[in-house]
Amino acid sequence: MPETTPVIHGPVAPAPPVGVLAGWAVSRRRSGAALTLSDHSLLAKAAVKAPWQGALADVLAVPFAGTLRRTAASTELLLTQPGPGEWLVLAPPGEQTALVTWLERCAADVDELVSVLDVTHGLCLVRLTGAAAPDLLAKECALDLSERRCPDRTALRTAVSRVAADIIRDDRDGNRSYLLACERSSGQYLFDSLLDAGAEYGVEVTGFEPPGVTEQTARAD
Amino acid sequence: MSMRLGPRVGEVIDRDEPLSFTWNGRTYPGYAGDTIASALAACGVRVFSRSFKYHRPRGLLTASHLDPGCMVQVDDEPNVRGAHRRVRPGMDVRSQDTWPTLSFDVKAANELARRMLPAGFYYKTFMSPGWLWPAYERVLERFAHGGVVGPGKVSALDGNERYDKRHAHPDVLVAGGGPAGMAAAVTAARSGCSVMLVEEELELGGHLRWGDDVDLTALSELRGRVAATPGIEVLTDAVVLGRYDGNEISVLQRGLPHVAERLVKARARTLVAAPGLIERPYVFAGNDVPGVMLSTAVRRLVNLHAVKPGDRAVVLTANADGDATALDLERAGVEVTRVDARRGGDVTRALGRGRVRAVELGDGRRVECDLLVTATGWTSAVSLLTMAGDQPRYDDTAARFRPDASRLPSDVMATGGVVGDGSCAQLVAHGEATGREAARRSAQSSVTASAAPPPLPVEPHPALFRGRTHGMVDFSEDVSSKDLFTAVEEGFRCPELAKRYTTATMGPAQGKLESVNVVAIIAEATGAAIAETGTTTWRPPYAPVSLGALAGRLREPTRLSPLASWHHSHGAAPLVAGAWIRPDHYGDPVAEAASVRDGVGIIDVTPIGKIDLRGPDVSRLLNLVYVNKWSKLEVGRVRYGVMCGEDGVVIDDGVTGRLAEDRYLMSTTSSGAVTVWEWLESWLQTERPQWRVHATPVTTSYASINVAGPRSRDLLARVVDDVDVAPEAFPYMHVRTGRLAGVPGCVVWRIGFTGELSFELHVPAGYGLHVWERLLEAGRDLGVRPFGVEAQRILRLEKGHLIVGQDTDATTKAYGAALDGLVKLDKDDFVGRPELSWGGQPGDGQRLVGLRMSPDSLVPAEGSQLLDHRGLICGRVTSSRLSPALGRAVCLAQVEAALAEPGRQVTVRLVDGGTARAAVTEQLAQVDPEGVRLRA
Asked: Which InterPro entries does the record match to this protein (chain A) (predicted)?
């Protein structure tokens, strides 16, 4: 039987036009709206569990309910700790093997129980960017997302649109931006709910722009 | 006849923007800024509705949101407050619940039977005979107002777009946008607080809006300060519905451009209640005749909307606002007769029906007029404060209840008219001091020392509640002072009881207009003082709220498999299973089942719960939560397990495979995935924290596909890259990991729920569609076809596999689920062991059995009762289908243990009322009971 290169399908149906990036079917749409929503599920994702305030926590050096950017395994990573002793680590698309390998190497250096799981396929990840992002989220989430309570580089676990989700404040180019992660099967529902809630703010879908984990939006596709 | 006045200094209408709308089918003019009521009143309309019980004509009373006489239907929306809602071009406004017309309402005949309809008549009249209640109900529905959702022009917003919610977390929430409220908001914001300022009216300003030039100057200055102060979010046309523990405050916001109603769920550090005062009506005969208005209503009409409310007026005044109203009317060209209540003046009766024709005064005089204005006192709007624990006290001097600030929690404060009287400057000063203190309490102010607001003066006011005649007390519910006297005579002497007996204060105004009058009249009837009579209790919501606003947008999470788009595009009938949308079948579930028995089929089983277990103590955990043994499970093996609660009741089942020395993959039922994970975490975190185990849900990390049927091995062999699927290399109840269709990281279990040779593939979710399509492509010559949940249920029932939750219930212990052989009481411990050891001897309670029907093609409905030889209920059918393989019904049932022996006969009570006989079978499995096929 002839082999074909399998295309990876994310949890959110990509808005046309559709292309392929790092093996994933992605939307190539580009929106200039002040408030945009994009599917970032193709980012490499790893879930890590280890004792809170244990040795691995020292190695990862991410504050609880916070985030940290660092370069490791020759790639840029966004580390978050939305739950005590639970980390979600993000890397550019296609880097999951390098990501997991680096984390397992970190785990090997500590004498405690550590779990490293590649959850690239298991989580839906969307990015909401724009000044009105907290207003939109206030319709779908009960948490106080004000600057005082939820500044840039905050990671929280909560419910958004009645779905368990991690909210990661990750501003880009000086604009308010949030990454929202939920389990994959609810991803399309969450995406649609955010679009519905954001209609009054003119939210538009925009496609993924790599690498997706840096502070700056890439200008070239 | 136009009653529109010339331009007024503080008017809110825009004369450059005329518009037209319809009222009961006739076109009327208005201006932008008009309310429905003001536009109609400017055209001479006096009657807007009929009263609730007696269908008496009703006109404007308060000309505000509270007005009980102006509830109308707007387009398809009932119960719109016509004295509050701004009129829009083309609006279709109709009167409610009148027949045939508003001016000639047949239901006004109720008034002729008024003596037959006293207070509490419905408690006495509709008690018996009980069988007539449906007829009573239909009659009451016709006569009782409630509005109708639907008739009229459909509004632009569909049902789901009308409502939504948002959350807010202001430091200070100020309820009331009058002078004190605005001042408090500005001061708190200037102290660094985020402030939400909520005002029920359409604009900020409170009573200043219809005041004189001094008031308007103060209003302009205060509004300017609010606008210029960052950190204040102003919500007009919004009302605070309630205050709950932790200062959770619900606010209903109306009339937004994108949504009709929005429920704001605010969590404020400090609540400042500044609701002001509400003018209360005076009780006398004819006080509900159209043309009898409160002084604030008149000032709103004249000064905000430039409407002349009448030509000849009598003004009964007991305060400065009444005096000012008389001056406003005179300036508008109205002939005014003043009756000063402070000097003993009184009104005993208003004469007229559709409009006021004359007034009888306390001194016996009769004055011809078309407008009677009363300014007889105020009610403190203490609702929010009582929700926070306040118990207002009656103040004889002010003739109103006033809050007791000492009872308020530290995160609730009050300012403005609700606290006391005073000039605008005094109210503003009090508001500023309150805002400053609110900021301090919210810890956002650099001012650390407490600075209690200065007290506001309390001005004396005559105690005017009821005159010498009886009149309407609750205009919303048609409850008169005479009704209250009757209630007291019948023993309902407490306001709380009299309220419920008469329904006074229970209408749309929710007591804000009438509660003090109710208390005063009960006090009069009982001979007690008002202070000792007490009040009714204020509870949320402060204002009526639509159910749609409470519900908000429809947010019902749905879960989709990675293959959902394929199922949809291939005509699958959707099945809602919990939150999952699954393919029930693809058109012919019987043929789908047959293809599995005869060849090979594939089914999307992604919803099966999957939990990744890691750590050196996993086997201890498995031994604890499952009733069977797990210590010797080797790497590469899979075992079936059942979990029980501590009461021995079955809570879930599934298989768990050992993928590596310290790595396992547990499967659960689809509906039990979250419950089981929480169950594991509960044991690990609270009972066995020393065990080194990590449990991580990975249900949606994988697309799960079951390949089932005698040709399933052949099919799998065509897509698997590095796993030997030969029987001896990959036996039943084993697990392998490898590449499928080029996809690495897949897990393959050889298990079977259908009773056929089958393999369960767990593929990284993003590749699910690829593998699914490759299976269909590779197995085309094998006749592979997808099958849905219905075919799977047929197949598993033929095989006698139970479904936890369907073939068991909340009382089914392991023995009752025919799992006797699985329960290992010789284990040291497991969850449910004591209960299963001590109280649940095999044979007790009900047992899961197979049933063979007679006639055997009869398929009883699931849930059908089973009867013993005495006709007593002895069980129920839990699952039933027609078996394509056997050509007869196959059933599972729960039946009393004494009747569970093979061959025992029971009677099945059918849905159509008939009965059928059934016999208990030898085994649960009706197809391949020896398991030869699945071990092939």
From this structure: GCVT_N, TrmE/GcvT-like
Distances (CA, A) of B602 to B598, B740, B780, B785: 13, 15, 12, 6
Class of the CATH domain delimited by A44-118: alpha beta
Residue B843 has pLDDT above 90, yes or no: no
Is the omega angle on the peptide bond into residue A134 within 30 degrees of 0, that is, cis?
Answer: no
Question: Alpha helices, DSSP H only, in B280-337?
Answer: 295-299, 320-331
Which residues form the domain of B601? 564-787
Structure confidence by residue, pLDDT tens digits, B685-699: 999 999 999 999 999
Mapped onto helix, strand or coil, the DSSP state of residue A69 is strand
One domain for residues B167 and B291: no
Do A146 and B194 lie within an 8 Å CB cutoff? yes
pLDDT band at A73 (very low <50, low <70, confident <90, very high): confident
Q: Name the residue facing B557 among A119, A163, A184 (closest C-beta).
A: A163
- What residue type is assigned to position B668 of the chain? T
Q: What residues does each domain of chain A span?
A: 18-42+123-205, 44-118
Give which of B664, B748, B656, B648 is closest to B706, Cα–Cα.
B748
Q: What band does B741 get if pLDDT is binned at 50, 70 and 90?
A: very high
Complex-level ipTM: 0.96
Return the pLDDT at A217: 63
A124-134, pLDDT tens digit by residue? 999 999 999 99
Same domain, B633 and B594: yes
Residue B1 inside a domain? The answer is no
Specify whether B699 is located in the same domain as B779: yes
Using the Cα atoms of residue B559, residue B563, residue B566 and residue B572 in order, give the sign of their dihedral.
negative
Q: How confident is the model at residue B864 (pLDDT cuts 50, 70, 90)?
A: very high
**B782, B717: one domain:** yes
| Chain A nearest CA to B264, separation (Å) | 9
- pLDDT given for residue A220 in this prediction: 39
Pairing of the two strands A36-39 and A204-205: parallel
Choose from A52, A113, A186, A192 for mutation: most chain B CBs within 10 A.
Answer: A113
Q: How many domains is chain B partitioned into structurally?
A: 6
Which residue in the set B166, B579, B698 is minimally distant from A138, CB to CB?
A: B166
- Average pLDDT of span B283-300: 98
pLDDT-derived band at A219 (thresholds 50, 70, 90) equals: very low
Q: Which chain B residues contact residue A141 at CB under 8 A? A: 167
Among partner residues B555, B580, B765, which is closest to A122 by beta-carbon distance?
Answer: B765
**Chain A contacts of B618, Cβ < 8 Å?**
none
3-state SS of chain B: helix, strand, coil percent to 5?
Answer: 30, 30, 45
- Do B729 and B589 have their domain in common? yes
Is there a single domain that holds both residue B591 and residue B628?
A: yes
Mean pLDDT across B344-367: 97
> Which strand (E) or helix (H) includes residue B523?
helix B515-526
**Closest alpha carbon to B347 in B358, B355, B357, B336:** B358
Min CA distance, A215 vs chain B (Å)? 27
Interface residue A20 vs chain B (CB under 8 A): no
Domain spanning A18-42+123-205: which CATH class is it, in words? alpha beta
Q: Tell me the CATH number at B711.
A: 3.30.1360.120
**Is the model's pTM score more than 0.90?**
yes
- Report CA dihedral (B268, B273, B274, B277) to the nearest 10 degrees: 150
Contact A185 B699 (CB under 8 A): yes
Q: Would the pLDDT of B451 be above 80? A: no
Beta bridge partners of A156: A167
Average pLDDT, chain A: 94
Counting one residue from A and one from B, how many pairs have CB atoms under 8 Å apart? Answer: 115
